[in-house]
Specification:
Blueprint lengths: L4 H22 L5 H17 L3 H8 L15
Helix pairs in contact: 1-2, 1-3
Length: 74
């Protein structure tokens, strides 16, 4: 399985959401806003195609393999 930028963005989003929920339960309920922010960012990126995390990760030179094009038929 390719370790594309899209996969790293999904891992980052999942980590942020779970961290926000965990901290919201254990520390202070204001940490739930972290999970809300991550969810809102995922939702807006699905409509606009603009994902700040994807841009940041690709600028860091971490995207060494191009994303797969699953729409192509052979």
């Amino acid at each position: 399985m390719a370790n594309s930028c899209e996969n790293r963005v999904r891992r980052l989003a999942g980590t942020v959401v779970l961290t926000g929920i965990g901290l919201g339960i254990a520390v202070n309920r204001w940490f739930f806003l972290l999970a809300v922010f991550a969810g809102a960012n995922l939702l807006q990126s699905s409509f606009t195609g603009v994902c700040p995390a994807e841009r940041l990760l690709s600028r860091c030179g971490r995207d060494t393999e191009p994303a797969r094009d699953d729409t192509r038929t052979t």
